[in-house]
Backbone:
């Protein structure tokens, strides 16, 4: 479990994260949602230690990331995997070398074992056929899949994803979502995904944290999201086609029921 | 740049070097990267060094032969002076100024691109000391290979002069070779190599600093690359003056 308590982040007098507290549960798909510029990525980068917050606590199973010694942070980071918005694959390495990289740096396996593990991870994301290609030779969706394989190579406890669907077509987006969900469930990984894609939220989201202008406006299970009475949440989720359709379908259903009951009552 | 900005940059550079100059996380990975950089920064620079040194060596001999044509100067002066110019300044300082354009911009743009495409962040999240992993092999490879480039440059530069003598006969080849051998001090070669190694450190580390601290997009990478070449050139000239005064003065 990851707990964030009273997190503040200020950039040159501009408050980007304002007193955020949230809990990310073990083994489920946690999602941080909100419109562009709401501070989602900064929040995620604070959580993994890429940006140092102005104040607050980030607790990994009770261990505070911000007060850890460098060696402890290094050890914790080996329990983390991260999928970046632009995939962040190393241009000079092939797909296989990219996935082998964390193993080369941190595992005690011999070369054959490392290669076997990398190939296993590539197979999980259906990328083994492109193992010898360079990132510049593969598509955006393939890059994301390779980045997922690299992120899970060291069997992480936590997997952080920064907008995994950005720049992908709806079909590939769905594929990436399903892949992330399957991997999280199969390996018991705590998944934290930053997104503004409501399709993704509805497909795989379980626990949702909603940010608006650096403030946490709402947190809870996905099922309760559309019943929220928070204005910012309503505005955000009903701007998406998915929710519009759900809303319309529900209205039709309610009206149909009403008409049905009216008919019955008139018959009576 | 304001004085406080300059001091801040110097402080940032020092902190970056503290991160860089530590033992690598994995010696095997360091060695792999070191060999790659040796080829990329060193071996691929040989053609540039050879080309420039050959023509400059030839031009130095032509200029000296035409302008040192005085009855009271012995004709082998051309050989002596061209050797000293090539050995003491051209093959180390001028060649490093030229290499700062090729190697410096290469390092700054490569690391800068890695920064803006979040590849450095990816390394950090994995728990890798990104500065050490990316920069140390470059610095070590360039420092190790630059003496080779200097020796190449000296040899090819003198050969350029030789060819001009053979083609024009001014001065005759035998006189030129006599001049190259006259009053020779071996120490000058070591001085030149030591100087180039200092310049090698400046070029690789300063360029890496500019690349590593890039913020923004592609335009900023281009700017960092240009800035690194400008600052490298200034630092090389300043270091040349200080080193020469300390060692030869």
Residues:
């Amino acid at each position: 479990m990851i707990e964030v308590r009273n997190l503040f982040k200020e950039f040159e007098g501009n408050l980007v994260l304002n007193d955020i507290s949230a809990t990310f549960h073990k083994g489920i798909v946690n999602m941080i949602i909100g419109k562009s510029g709401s501070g989602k990525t900064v929040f995620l980068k604070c959580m993994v230690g890429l940006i140092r917050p102005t104040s607050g606590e980030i607790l990994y199973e009770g261990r505070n990331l911000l007060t850890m010694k460098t060696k402890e942070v290094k050890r914790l980071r080996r329990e983390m995997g991260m999928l970046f918005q632009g995939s962040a694959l190393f241009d000079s390495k092939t797909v296989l070398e990219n996935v082998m990289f964390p193993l080369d740096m941190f595992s005690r396996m011999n070369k054959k074992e490392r290669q076997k593990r990398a190939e296993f991870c590539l197979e999980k994301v259906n990328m083994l056929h492109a193992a010898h290609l360079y990132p510049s030779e593969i598509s955006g969706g393939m890059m994301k899949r390779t980045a997922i394989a690299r992120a899970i190579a060291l069997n992480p406890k936590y997997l952080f994803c920064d907008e995994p669907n950005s720049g992908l077509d709806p079909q590939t987006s769905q594929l990436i979502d399903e892949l992330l969900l399957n991997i999280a469930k199969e390996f018991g990984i705590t998944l934290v995904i930053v997104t503004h894609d409501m399709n993704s939220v509805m497909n795989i989201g379980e626990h949702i944290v909603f940010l608006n202008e650096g403030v946490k406006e709402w947190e809870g299970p996905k099922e309760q999201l559309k019943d929220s009475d928070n204005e910012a949440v309503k505005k955000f989720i009903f701007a998406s086609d998915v929710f519009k359709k759900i809303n319309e379908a529900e209205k039709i259903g309610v009206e149909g029921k009403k008409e049905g009951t009216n008919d019955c009552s008139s018959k009576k | 740049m304001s004085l406080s900005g300059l001091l801040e940059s110097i402080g940032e550079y020092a902190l970056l070097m503290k991160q860089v100059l530590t033992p690598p996380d994995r010696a095997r990975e360091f060695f792999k990267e070191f060999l790659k950089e040796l080829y990329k920064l060193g071996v691929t620079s040989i053609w540039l060094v050879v080309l420039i040194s050959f023509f400059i060596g030839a031009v130095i001999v032509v200029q000296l032969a035409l302008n040192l044509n005085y009855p009271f100067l012995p004709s082998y002066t051309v050989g002596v002076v061209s050797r000293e110019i090539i050995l003491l300044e051209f093959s180390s300082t001028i060649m490093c100024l030229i290499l700062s354009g090729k190697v410096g911009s290469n390092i700054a743009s490569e690391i800068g691109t890695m920064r803006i495409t979040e590849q450095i962040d990816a390394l950090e999240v994995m728990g890798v000391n990104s500065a050490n992993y990316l920069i140390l092999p470059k610095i070590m490879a360039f420092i190790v290979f630059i003496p080779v480039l200097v020796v190449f440059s000296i040899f090819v530069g003198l050969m350029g002069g030789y060819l001009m003598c053979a083609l024009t006969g001014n001065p005759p080849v035998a006189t030129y070779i006599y001049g190259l051998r006259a009053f020779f001090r071996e120490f000058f070669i070591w001085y030149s190599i030591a100087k180039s190694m200092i310049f090698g450190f400046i070029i690789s580390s300063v360029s890496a600093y500019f690349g590593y601290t890039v913020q923004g997009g592609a335009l900023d990478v281009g700017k960092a690359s240009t800035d690194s070449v400008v600052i490298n050139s200034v630092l090389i000239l300043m270091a040349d003056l200080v080193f020469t005064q300390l060692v030869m003065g």
Remarks:
- Chain B has one domain: 26-248.
- The mean pLDDT of chain B is 94.
